[in-house]
Design a protein that fits this description.
The protein has helices spanning 7-41, 58-74, 80-98, 112-136, 147-179, 184-190, 192-211, 225-229. The protein is an all-alpha fold.
Amino acid sequence: MNQQTDPRESLVLSYLSLRKAVGIIGVALPFVLALGNMSLHGHGIKCSISNYYYTDMGNVFVGSMCAIGVFLLSTRGYDRRDRIAGYLACIFALGVALFPTTPECNPTGEHKITSTLHSTSAFLLFLTFAFFCLVLFTQTDKKIPTRRKVQRNRVYRISGFIILACIVLIVVVKLLVVKLPAVETAVERVKPIFWLESLAVFTFGVAWLTKGEMILKDEESAKPAEAAIAGYGQC
C-alpha cells in the first residue's frame, strides 16, 4: 500500500525551499553580476551592484531583485510585524529593481528622480534586512531554545550588525565624496560601495540559508510540521 504524504510536510518543505531560495540569490548575486560581466566584456568591478543594471547582466540584477521581493512577500511569521516587514521588503526590492541608479554613480539631472527613488529604496531595503536578522529571526516560542537555535541566533545577530555597519559606511563614503571631491578618485578606484553592498547582500543570504536549515539545522531527528511552518523565530 502507498503511504499517504502528510500535506503539512509538503508545506514545510515549501517554506524551507523558499527560505533557501532567498539565501542562494543573496549569496550568489554579487559574484554572478561581477564575474558574469567580466567574462563577457573583461571590464572591472562596477562602482555599485546597482550599476550592473546598465550592463548585459542588467536582466539578472532586475530579475534577482524582483525574485527576492516576491519571495519576501510570500513569507509568513508570528504577527503583524512579520507581515508588514515582508510587504515593505517586497516594495523596497521592487523599487531597487524598477528605478535604476545613475550610470557609473555619476548623478545627472536626467536621472536624478529615479536615482533618488533607487537610493531610498536600497537604503530602506538594507534596513529591513537588518530588522529581519536582529528582530524577526531571533524570535522563538520555546522557553528554553535548543542549542542549535542559540547558534543560529548568533548568526542572525552577527549578520544584522554587519548589515547595519555596511549601511553606515556606505553613507559615510557618499558624504565624503560630496564634501571632499578629492576623495572621488580614490573611491572610483577602490569601489567601496560595491564591496559594502556585496557584503550586506551576501550576509543577508547567509542568514536566510540558516533560516532554511541549510546551515545549523536542528539536531533532532524530526520536528513537528507546525513548528516549521510557524513564524520566523522558529528556525
